Amino acid sequence: xxxxxxxxxxxxxxxxxxxxxxxxxxxxxxxxxxxxxxxxxxxxxxxxxxxxxxxxxxxxxxxxxxxxxxxxxxxxxxxxxxxxxxxxxxxxxxxxxxxxxxxxxxxxxxxxxxxxxxxxxxxxxxxxxxxxxxxxxxxxxxxxxxxxxxxxxxxxxxxxxxxxxxxxxxxxxxxxxxxxxxxxxxxxxxxxxxxxxxxxxxxxxxxxxxxxxxxxxxxxxxxxxxxxxxxxxxxxxxxxxxxxxxxxxxxxxxxxxxx
Length: 259
Known about the structure:
Distance between the termini: 27 Å
Structural class: alpha/beta
Largest sheet: 8 strands, mixed
Number of helices: 11
Order of helices and strands: HHHEHEHEHEHEEHHHEEH
Oligomer: single chain
């Protein structure tokens, strides 16, 4: 690590739990972020600032004026541009020491599995259940740790799903896929802008912990926030032994190391 990096990441290096070794893990890490909107914005900015070596940013949407109330990765000059490309430029402007790949595409199951297999960690920063479940299936198939967040109106939540841990639930264990589920959207119900910053920042913190190998990740715990009353709650949950996604072959056969 050269003098410039030592200076840039000094406040992380000073942390005994992280130190130079943890920072080097961040510099070597590869992270996939699905969604460059309200959650992906703060998450990506903090991971870029932390020196995550390679960030793959995926989003097929374009920047609109109504996004700027909360999607802080973009500004007025980016209107009409694809969010993945606008986001890539913002991340590189913040930290040119990293590599950012912008993918303007809507990922199907096959593509998600291929991308998840190439990274150390996936952040689910999307805004719909169908994509969340597809990301979860890919992470289960490849044993890639997943940090998932969601926010609507004044409520947000974050959890970590890590199938390298045999006891870890997957997203489907907590939120089983259902065709008749009514989904709320920001475009119709609204969302408090800073709430997305709170949730996305927690996602970034969990990602850094997982990469650096420090602390206790939110595995088997759902952290929720009510921003209207500013109350945080933690709900513990377990793996569903009958889960249609993760209750399958043992970790050794699935390619998980279990450590």
